[in-house]
Amino acid sequence: MATSAPVSIPIPSSRPALSWKDRVQRFLLLDSTLGYLFLLPALLVIVGLVAYPFVSAIIMTFQAKTAGAPGRFIGLGNYRELLASEQFLRTVYNTVVYTAVGVGVKFCLGLSMALVLNQERFCNNLFRSFLLIPWAIPTVMSALNWRWIFDDASGLINNVLVRLNLIEETISWLSNPHLAMLSVLTVVVWQGTPFFTMSFLAGLQSIPKELYEAAEIDGASVLQQFRFITLPRLQPVFITAVMLSAILTSASIQFVYILTNGGPSDRTMIFPVLSYNLALGGAQRLGMGATVSLFFFPVLVVFIIFLTRRMLREKGE
Amino acid sequence: MTPSMTTSRRALQTIPGQWGKSKKVTLSMTSSRRMLKGLGNVVLVLMLLWTAIPFYWMIATSLKHDKEIYGYEATLIPQQPTLDNYATVFRETPYLLFMRNSIVVAVSSTVLSMIIACLGAYAIARLNFPGRAFLARSLVFTYLVPTSLLFIPMFALMSALRLTDSLHGLTIAYLGFDVPFCTWLLMGYFKSVPVELEEAALVDGCNRVTALVRVVLPLALPALVVVTFFSFTHAWNEFLYAHVFTSTNSARTVTTGLANFMSQDVFFWGPLMASTIMSALPPVVMFLVLQRWVVQGLTLGGVKG
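^ Those are the sequences you sent over. The predicted structure of the assembly is below.
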């Protein structure tokens, strides 16, 4: 930090030599010593709870391993078996559809919600708070609630539809192969939209009002203002929110696990659920389970690296 | 909708060269503003309904007798509201134990990750040492790695350390997410505290540690509140680790406890909805109280969506 000038300052000889204790204290308070010391616990956490498990996940993919027993090396056996299994191919397809549709719809709804909440209105803060609540509710709780809403016999939707005489027989929202994915996505969107709303709303509020005033004076229509001011200004927020949501949507297990557990006949099977079922669902094939997740890591890592850069840039690193 | 659209388009065409004089322009602007406002109100009502109906169903179900929940006498509005379901939850299920476990895990992982994160964030924000940038990057990176990539080896690790079915194990496991995230969030806030204040403290005889505790932390108090909120709710809401690492009720948290009720094939939606509401309350109340800061913290960067 402080660079010493090339002039040597004479140290008064009367000054007593530093005691051992002082020296230790000085050493400890050096920027670099202190830096490492302060970061040590965080580093231990990263290494022990993320890096080490991650590396051992990679090793497991080359092993036939069950819980509690040491793994047996089988080379690319797990990978070969997965690629040959129809269930896995279905899972890849489902995961892509699930993530793309989920994020896409959340994005559109979130943007419209944010635009609406950005208008001036009586009690707007109250509406905003209310619309954001699904984000604060534990995901498992929303999933349970929706499972009951979709219930075959007495759930809300069937209940209402029967009452209105719109259907003769109740609809199996979660066990009909054609409807299951749609139903699960409905829940994903319900729970995930507020995150987009919040991000976009904050983005909207950071756009200087002067830009709109100037555009208005120049005669730009509302649509033009949206196209040439709002959208470009929100772009950074768009990218961050979409990437983050893509990582989390594809990798979160709760909705599918609770609503359908991947069924009917793998129609809603996405990779975290498959990984869980293979590893802990009965056969306890930890190696196979790890291989499923690892398959998706290359895609995720691209997003993660990109986001890391963005997030650090925002912090001025 | 269309008439005012066309007027505004016509107004646009009159603009070139004479925008200063044209009254028509401002007029059509206000009318299209009004139209947008109307559209906004309609959308808002739809959004409110879409958000509210599931809540309504959850609450209504929790207040009904079984005969109003299932079968031909099922109702949309509870005819004879009752709190029986809530009583059942406490009387016949280990729900209180789950609650206690959740609180213990959430509080302890929050406290631990706060301490670790404050130190780490301060080091990255203020101290100069080789490898600083790399460490900052690895923190963000680890925060973004989803737990569904890690739960299998974590399960093996926890089993080997005999930390399954224990609140200690769960608390430790949650640090893997909380610490990187909190460190990253605090880093930004610490940077926004003016260096001059700290330098003054250093001149006045503080060392780095006392400067952190006496100067930086008090100034970053709003940040500490946000970080507390995020790590508490994360631990409270977490499902995968809690589900994988526990197999008996002794260490089940509310999330995995309730999911487990359901998988037992005992279909009792009344009590289940009652316990769902009670489990959702703590994070929702915290969110509503701290909303302003939470949204701010969220915009400073990504938060689990």
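The CA atoms of residues 257 and 263 of chain B lie 10 Å apart. Chain B touches chain A through 117 residues (CB under 8 Å).

Shout if you want it in another format.
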